[in-house]
Amino acid sequence: MAKSWHHLPEALRAETRSVSRAVRRARAGPGRERDLVAQALKAALAALVAWVVASRVLHAPMAFIAPWVAVALVRATVYQSLARSLEQLAAIALGTTLATAAGMALDDPTVAMVLVLPVTLLVGNWRKLGDQGIYGATAALFTLTAGDPGVGQAVARLLESLLGAAVGVAVNMLVRPPVYLRDGRASLRTALDAAAECLARVARGLAGPWDHGDARAWDQQARRVGELADEAQDALARTEESARLNPVARRRTRLLRRQGPYAHTTYVLEELVRSTRDLTRTLREAADGGSGRPRPEEDVAMHYARLLGRLATAVTAFGHVVTEDSGAARSRLRRAVEDAGAAHEELRRLLAGRGAADPEWMGLHGSLLVDAHRAVRQLLQEPPHHDDRP
User: Fold this and answer.
1) d(CA 99, CA 140)
2) Domain limits at 287?
3) Does the predicted TM-score (pTM) go above 0.70?
4) CB-based contact 176:164 (threshold 8 Å)
5) For residue 192, what are the contacts with CB-CB under 8 A and spacing of at least 6?
6) pLDDT tens figures, 307-350
7) What would the pLDDT profile of 32-61 be if each residue is shown by its tens digit?
8) Dist. CA 124–CA 372, nearest whole Å
């Protein structure tokens, strides 16, 4: 405990710095932090509107239910708001109905609670209700603890819930409906830059002395690139979801579907990840003295380092095309891919005729050539032009 208190001031300072950076990023320009601020303000607005309508206009008996539902339904995307509203209303209807029936039959809220809560909590785990299942149990609690349950009260609660859901979905749809074009592009660029840095790091290492520890570090970095590629896939899926039912997103997101330019970029990224993982795994096995694989000769390693360095430059140029899509960026990509292709051809000529009688030698250098060639071949296919600027 003493140790925890000793580190508390530094932890608080670190958290304060993190919050300050987030605030500065939110003020500086569009980004995740500003999106979170907007979503929080929209949720507050939805709760306020639902409360005013329920309490001042309709004079609902349990007006707080409407803002309680509304604030929970201002989600990251319009599609999520609508889908979660249906799940939440189903859960609330179930909990309210069961609690009303049990309360009227038993005339004892405590006994009714003992019977109803386990059922609503178990049903709340039903996959069809998603993460909204808990609202069934809370609705049952409201019903059983708010007084004598009756059909009229149950109907009123359901109508108040419906009002809150309608307000929450409407606010999310009409007030700055979220579109995450920026997130998808940024995630793709981050993953591509990480792939380029991994290739460049291997190139720098092969140009000098390297050992099994170096090769293991390269392989770990390649694994991290794979994780970033998965995150980019998730970000693109979120981007596509943000276009569903979004009244302002159709023009800006029509090319983000799986048939659009980002589908091509995602495919290239997957192939780059696979090639990078394969080549770092091959080098790690070659560095392991017990694997039986030979190490590349010094001149071969130098040529391969040159190839990987040019390939890293081409991947970086590809990333610029993803985010800029300008004629200059595409010209740089073509030149970089041509340079990488020339380096690959030089290495192929160097290896021609060498080690033909040694299967292990052929396996090593054949794998390295194939992995690099696969990456160069993918980069030869430029991304289609896109016109999805927010």
Assistant:
1) 5
2) 182-379
3) no
4) no
5) 269, 272, 315, 316, 318, 319, 322
6) 999 999 999 999 888 877 788 888 999 999 999 999 988 888 88
7) 667 778 888 989 999 999 999 999 998 888
8) 51
